[in-house]
Amino acid sequence: MSSPRTDNAGGGRSSPLNLPSPLPLRSGFSFLTARAISKSMKVLIIEDDAEAAAYLKKAMDEAGHVADIAGNGDDGFAMADSGDYDALVVDRMLPKRDGLSVISALRAKGDMTPALVLSALGEVDDRVTGLRAGGDDYLTKPYAFSELLARLEVLLRRQSGAEQETRYQVGDLELNRLSHEVKRGDQTIALQPREYRLLEYLMRHSGQVVTRTMLLENVWDYHFDPQTNVIDVHISRLRSKIEKGFDKPLLHTIRGAGYMMRD
Amino acid sequence: MKRFLSAFNTTAARLSALYLILFSACAVFLVFYMTGSAARFLVNETRTAIAEEVRSLGDVYRDRGLRVLVREIDRRSRRPGANLYMVADNAGRILSGNVIALEPGVLDNPGWTERPFVYARFGDDLSVIEDPERAPHALAQVIVVDNGMRILVGRDLGEPQRFREIVRRALITALAFMAAGGFLIWFFVGRRALQRIDRVSEASARIVAGDLSGRLPVSGANDEFDRLSESLNTMIEKISTLNDGLRDVSDSIAHDLKTPLTRMRNRAEVALAGDDKSTDYRTVLEDMIGEADQLIKVFNALLLISRVEAGFSKQKLDEVDLAVIASEVQELYEPLVEDAGMVLVNEVEGPLPIAGKRELIGQAVTNLIDNAIKYGACPNGKITISTSRDDADKMIRLAIADQGQGIPDTDKERVKGRFVRLDESRSKPGSGLGLSLVSAIMSLHGGKLELEDAGPGLKVVLSFPAAKP
């Protein structure tokens, strides 16, 4: 945590391009320890690149998760089918059987284990194909492990049904999804529609790391990589609205990864 | 010899050979047909004349008796250029006429016969062709009158035969001349074509050898060779432009990618040289990751540009509202612009339906606003997004204008290229790929990217074809 790099150091060398790019992987995954809720999960990595798979497994281990590796589509399907996994990380191009067909075969058998598709193909249409085949999320290579882990956690949480709740609460901050009312203590906070949606997404995933890419995807529905700055500016505006005049910070910056709502 | 032969191995030569053969065949057919029918006509004329004469001789015999007939035949036989005449009794003895000998049996068959006859031609030199081999062909009619008397009248067929012979000889001579002429034309046309092609080959060999400034010769005759040369020259021009572009891009890649790689390497080296390991290592690794991210961004940008340029065109475009996209991006960027001390003004009036890819258009607009923040910065500056609809050419235009320094006219086309960065912007972050991506996205949409002066500032205009209602 002694890094001299500021949180948005990436902004200093931002290019005019908004394209998928990895977030830096911090050694030791220090940002993961900041997690309020970080249950251990059992993940199956279906990936033919042995080195990438081993590295991913190591990262999972360090983050406190358990990971198995399958080197091809057939093994991957058999292990996913018999094993009891919380989530799958599936490479799209696999020997013997491609990743998307593994997922659709599992879905056809009623197996709804959340699956994150990894692919070198990053176009919007590729993403749509990936999601249509039953994938729950899509990540373009090269990716940052912090991004991958953040997305996996969100996938797991999605299972728990946070989407259906009508009211989110973090500390004394309350968001009512029916009346679109945001209150901190007994003070009502007026938000722009987009700020509301940003806060709603952050609160739905409270206790989880939410990356800038995830925010741009879910709040703005754009799939290119944000200029780090663009999202940061929105966050800092939102932050000033929900934290100004209150002692306790709720919206935390997780260095090298993104943001987290946490009491 | 080889050159001589190769002159015949040209299209022109082959074509003239083909025409020569076809024309000769037609000429031969025509001449044979004409001489054939002329000869047939002559023979028919001859038959009619013979039949007439035979009938009149028959009348003479019936009316005035054998003596008068014999005398008449004798008289007719002695005329110059006389026909063949003969009268024989029922035993076959020749009573009168100029036919000297007959093959046996000729007189037994009344009617028409065509064969060699040995006869005396009193009119000329009274020569008698005795040799049956050389006897002239003649057409003759034999009729039988009372008492088994036979009268033969014939006509020498030498004349039509000679006529045919003359025509045939003339034809052969003409054909020979024609062949010779064709052969000469063939040779010269072929050689001329070959010379021009040789010049083209030589020029292209020089170009292939690397001299892209060379051009194929154009004679000015505006013929097919000139047209070919001209289109090849256009192609070479294009190749030359592409080649220059490639060289520029390679130079830029070498420069733009070498810098971060060198920095990475140097940082690692410095870290290894230092004493205090743990903190230095962390800093260096973090910086190296940052540099690597930047490199990946550049590669991603290049890949996206080429995918947009190449593959995307096959994809179907969706129906999108340009006004909605512009407002979304405006909303996303407004805080950033304000933080930079400027204002982002949205003058978009919708709806503006077009066929397009929302993500890509969004990315293009994002890049342009980003450029405006970076290069169009000025105190209290204004960045304006506006739209206009041109009903004349059915285009919808989206313009992003800043109040910065703008771009000189001479550079307006150049900055659309890959890795092109103007000198003033070298110090600013960026890869020089933003506008090339916008340009690629616009061509995918069948639209245009234009840079104009906003007076002061730069106005970037994106023109999209309006969606068909």
Please write out the topology.
The complex is a heterodimer of chains A (263) and B (469).
Chain A (H helix, E strand, L loop, with lengths): L41 E5 L3 H13 L3 E5 L2 H10 L4 E5 L7 H10 L6 E5 L4 H9 L4 E4 L4 H15 L7 E4 L2 E4 L4 E4 L2 E3 L3 H12 L5 E2 H8 L8 H16 L7 E4 L3 E4 L2
Parallel strand pairs in A: 1-2, 1-3, 3-4, 4-5
Antiparallel strand pairs in A: 6-7, 7-8, 8-9, 10-12, 11-12
Helix pairs in contact in A: 2-3
Chain B lengths: L1 H7 L2 H67 L6 E5 L5 E4 L1 E3 L9 E6 L1 E2 L17 E8 L5 E7 L1 H51 L15 H50 L3 H34 L7 E4 H18 L3 E5 L5 E4 L1 H18 L6 E9 L4 E7 L32 H11 L3 E6 L4 E8 L4
Parallel strand pairs in B: 9-11
Antiparallel strand pairs in B: 1-2, 1-7, 3-5, 4-6, 6-7, 8-10, 11-12, 12-14, 13-14
**Segments of chain B where pLDDT lies below 50 for 5+ residues?**
none
The helix-strand sequence of chain A is EHEHEHEHEHEEEEHEHHEE
Instruction: Quickly count the helices of chain A.
Output: 8
The protein's oligomeric status is heterodimer
Distance N to C terminus of chain B: 70 Å
User: How many domain modules of chain B?
Assistant: 3
Major sheet of chain A, described briefly? Answer: 5 strands, parallel
Give average pLDDT of chain B, whole number: 80
Name the strands of the widest sheet of chain A in spatial order.
Answer: 2-1-3-4-5
Low-confidence stretches of chain A: 1-37
Mean pLDDT of chain A: 80
Give the largest chain-chain interface (CB within 8 Å).
Answer: A-B, 39 and 41 residues
Number of domains of chain A: 2
Please identify the structural class of chain A as seen in this structure.
Answer: alpha/beta
Sketch the major β-sheet of chain B: 5 strands, antiparallel
CATH H-level superfamily of the largest domain in chain A: Response regulator
